[in-house]
Amino acid sequence: MADKNRKRDKIFMDLKQLQYFVVCAQTGSFSDAAKNLYSTQPSVSKVIKGLEDTLGMQLFERLPRGIRLTVQGHKMYEYASKIINEVNVLENMASSGMTKWIRISLNPSSWFANQFVDFYNETYEKKYHFQVTTAGVQSVMERVRDYMDDIGFVYILSQQKENFLYELSKNKMHFEPIYETDVMLYPGGLTELYNSGKERAELEDLEGIRFIQNYQDEFFDIGAVKEDAFQWKDIDISVLTNSDYIMEKMLKNSKVANISGSYLSENKEGTTPGIPLDLGDSKVIFGFILHKGEAMDESVAELVEFLKSRLPKH
C-alpha cells in the first residue's frame, strides 16, 4: 500500500506548477516568466524543477540564452495549456455567474469589425461576453492550439494553403474555408492609380509604388524569399500595421497602396473600390480554425453562421 501511495505522489501536480510551466514555455525564459508571474527567477526555476521531478522527465532544455521545450515538454504543454485555460474559464464563471465568454482571434479586418458590431447588437439580450484578439495567421493558429481562443479567423493566399494545412494537421487542428475572393489592389488617394479607371492591374503597375500592409505573415507572404512561397517582384512595403484605422488614414492621405482581398472594398475609405490584380489563379481564402474532432460551441456556431450570412454571394 505504501508503494502505491508513493506512486500517486509522483504524479501529483498543483495548478501553480502548471501555470508557471505554461508561462515559461510561452516566454522562453525563466526571468521573463518571473516578471509576468510577479515572482523571481530562482522561485520560477525551483517550481519548474519540482514539476520535472514529479513527472520524472525534463520539460525544458536550458540554453545560454533562455529555455526551450523538449519533445516531452511540447506534449506536456499541449495538455497544460488546455487545463490552465479551462481553469480561467471556471474562474470567470465563479466571478460572473454563468456568463458566456466567446474567445476569438483573427487577422485584422475592417469587414470583420463591422460584422462583429452587428453580431454583438443582434445577440445583446443573450448577454454574451467576448474576448477579441487581432494577430497574424501564425499567432492565431497558436492561440487556438493552446486553447486561448475558441476559434480563429484567418485570410490566406491560395498558394500557401497546402503548407498552411500541413501546419494545422501537425497541431491537430483543421481549417474550414467559407469564402474565396480575388486579390485586389487598393490605390491610395494620392497615387497616380487613384480614380484611374483601370479595370484590372498588372504587376508592372506596382513598380514605384510604396505599400501599407497588415503585418507580414508566413501564410500571406508578400515579398517572400522562400521558393515554395508566393512572390511579388519589387514590392516596397513601407508600412506594416495591425491597425485598420492607420490603414484607412494612410490610404486616404498618402502615396501608398494596399494589396488584400475584395472583402475589404467597402471599408477602404479614400480609395477606389479596388482593382483586381492579375496574379494568375491566385485567390484570398477566408475561413476559420478549430481543434480537429471537437464540437463547436453553440454560441461560436451562431457567430460563424452570422458571418456566412454577411459574406457577398458569388
UniProtKB/TrEMBL annotation:
Keywords: DNA-binding, Transcription, Transcription regulation
InterPro entries: HTH-type_LysR_regulators (IPR050950), LysR_HTH_N (IPR000847), WH-like_DNA-bd_sf (IPR036388), WH_DNA-bd_sf (IPR036390)
A Pfam family assignment: HTH_1
A Gene Ontology molecular function term of the record: DNA-binding transcription factor activity
Keyword Transcription attached: yes
Source organism superkingdom: Bacteria
This protein's GO CC annotations: cytosol
Coiled coil: none
Domain HTH lysR-type: 13-70
Family per record: Belongs to the LysR transcriptional regulatory family.
Protein name: HTH-type transcriptional regulator BenM
Highest classification ranks of the organism: Bacteria, Bacillati, Bacillota, Clostridia, Lachnospirales
